[in-house]
TrEMBL record:
<dbReference type="InterPro" id="IPR003593">
    <property type="entry name" value="AAA+_ATPase"/>
</dbReference>
<keyword id="KW-0547">Nucleotide-binding</keyword>
<dbReference type="InterPro" id="IPR011527">
    <property type="entry name" value="ABC1_TM_dom"/>
</dbReference>
<feature type="transmembrane region" description="Helical">
    <location>
        <begin position="58"/>
        <end position="83"/>
    </location>
</feature>
<dbReference type="InterPro" id="IPR003439">
    <property type="entry name" value="ABC_transporter-like_ATP-bd"/>
</dbReference>
<dbReference type="InterPro" id="IPR039421">
    <property type="entry name" value="Type_1_exporter"/>
</dbReference>
<dbReference type="Pfam" id="PF00664">
    <property type="entry name" value="ABC_membrane"/>
</dbReference>
<dbReference type="Pfam" id="PF00005">
    <property type="entry name" value="ABC_tran"/>
</dbReference>
<feature type="transmembrane region" description="Helical">
    <location>
        <begin position="171"/>
        <end position="194"/>
    </location>
</feature>
<feature type="domain" description="ABC transmembrane type-1">
    <location>
        <begin position="59"/>
        <end position="343"/>
    </location>
</feature>
<dbReference type="InterPro" id="IPR017871">
    <property type="entry name" value="ABC_transporter-like_CS"/>
</dbReference>
<dbReference type="GO" id="GO:0005524">
    <property type="term" value="F:ATP binding"/>
</dbReference>
<feature type="transmembrane region" description="Helical">
    <location>
        <begin position="103"/>
        <end position="125"/>
    </location>
</feature>
<dbReference type="GO" id="GO:0016887">
    <property type="term" value="F:ATP hydrolysis activity"/>
</dbReference>
<dbReference type="GO" id="GO:0015421">
    <property type="term" value="F:ABC-type oligopeptide transporter activity"/>
</dbReference>
<keyword id="KW-0812">Transmembrane</keyword>
<dbReference type="GO" id="GO:0090374">
    <property type="term" value="P:oligopeptide export from mitochondrion"/>
</dbReference>
Amino acid sequence: MAESENPAKAPAAANDPVEAGALAVEATETGKGKRGNPRQLGNLAMIGKFASAYPRQIALALLALTVAACATLAIPAGFKLVIDRGFGGDGGSAEDIGRWFRYLFMITVILGLSTALRFYFVSWLGERVVADIRLAVQRNLLGLAPSFFETNRPSEIASRMTSDTAIVEQVVGTTVSVALRNLVVGIGGIAYLFSLAPKLTGMLLLGIPLVVLPIVFIGRRLEKVARSSQDRVANVGATTTEVLAAMKIVQAFGQEEREAARFGDAVETTFATARRRITLRASLTAVVITLIFGAITAIMWQGAIDVIEGRLSGGDIAAFVLTGGLVAGAFGALTEVYGDLLRAGGAAGRLNELLNEQPEIRAPATPVVLPVPPRGQLSFQNVSFAYPTRPETLALRDFSLQVSPGETVAIVGPSGAGKSTLFQLAQRFYDPQAGSVRIDGVALSSADPREIRQRMAFVPQESVLFAASARDNLRYGNWAASDEQIWEAARAANAEEFLRKLPDGLDSYLGEGGARLSGGQRQRISIARALLRNAPILLLDEATSALDAESEKLVQNALERLMQGRTTLVIAHRLATIRSADRIFVMSDGGIVEEGTHDQLSARNGLYARLSALQFTEGPLAAE
Ligand SMILES: Nc1ncnc2c1ncn2[C@@H]1O[C@H](COP(=O)(O)OP(=O)(O)OP(=O)(O)O)[C@@H](O)[C@H]1O
């Protein structure tokens, strides 16, 4: 009748004292329930807030929980009736006996049903709350500026989304229900015990600290030794890895004997610690079993005397032992609850941080509306900017540039000159420390970032494709696009031919990151996507990855169509792009050092001429 969802979590849920004791030892030894910080418990309010959206489920869960707890307590009472009336030999017929057994059977059915319902509603709540927390965290993350992700690693955030939410799920789905159920069973059980046999119950309550304290005391020491035992094992692992990795050096220097001795030391220390651990655990087992069975024997002894002297019936003793087991199990399970709540407090705290993080880039209260129709003008005015993680280094210094509607401006310059930073600021992923960036004359900081980005199409250097269909990848920037428009864009981006050859056409799955396409094909999908977005301003970071001549021609041709009729700022690596640009700006160290056309700049013999000789080729560039 152990009704715990997770038997390993509730050692005392087992009514067998030996098993309960052994589980308690196990739990202490593995150092389960790493101690959290009690101050973190306040974070649990956040879980309550999410759960409070489902009052109906909470009410049903509480109802089922109460019925189940009462039914649990009714079982010993049923046994008492069965023994006293059924076996008790007051001369009843088989028919009379059947009544008590039917009664017991009914309680069992109620217990089964209510436990199942409690499990369903409580687990439902746990899963729903976690789902809602995940959704809320993700929604908040999507609105944060890139600077947040520079200081918070994605892997760490992903772990919060999975393991921390799992801990929260455990609290809502298990811990709270374990706590409530066992409180009801524990308190109700003690009340019932008192009504059955007050003296025996008094003895039981006095005996509990005598049994529990030594177990807790030895358990704490065991936990410490277990931890150091784990450290020693890790040490053996580290020594092994080190020697294996340096095998040639060990042998070249003839250090085999020394390494064997060193390893021997590590193994022997591990063994010594393990011996201390198993000695402690053996004594704990002896203490647990002796104390628990000793206490039960003493109580039964007293009970037997009471039965002989007519103060108690056989059924009373049976009910007492059963209820005593339930009460002990309930309090055992409750000792676990605090540790679980502490861990959950930590997890909820970390999730809370993600939920409450405010985006650094936000629309002002009353954003200025961008002019309609869009002109496609982009300007940087005396912009100075340092990335938040490197405040002492200016990535752009007093940078000014005006790009007129329909103009193509190529930016060239050595690595680290600040070219990509221009794009980051144009899309308002960061705000400059001085100066302003404007689109159609409106300062980006006074407009809604979403409206700004709506007017731009960005083609990154490395095509970013999603593990989705070709259709969804293409219309990523314009979900309203019809298949006809998609094919039109694909045609203009020289992507139609290979898309038509895909097994399921636009429905074909492109694989993780578009892995099922070649590099050149991915670039053309990226270009078609920008075409579909049909934005007045194009930010194009030309790919540097090498393509074969045929593919190169297709991409170049697609890019030319994309740039037609749009204001384009292009970080250029291909000579063809640079040549076709209206103006070329050469950047170095966050500023513009030269400006002109390809021919003018080539003739000047400056940075451009040097870069040009080294980097710009008819074909793609090698990586800088
Ligand atoms: N997210 C960031 N956080 C901190 N510093 C950054 C960040 N991104 C770029 N930087 C720094 O800002 C400066 C300008 O970088 P940027 O990426 O704009 O150069 P780039 O000209 O685009 O170079 P490349 O051609 O190699 O892409 C560099 O010194 C770079 O190290």
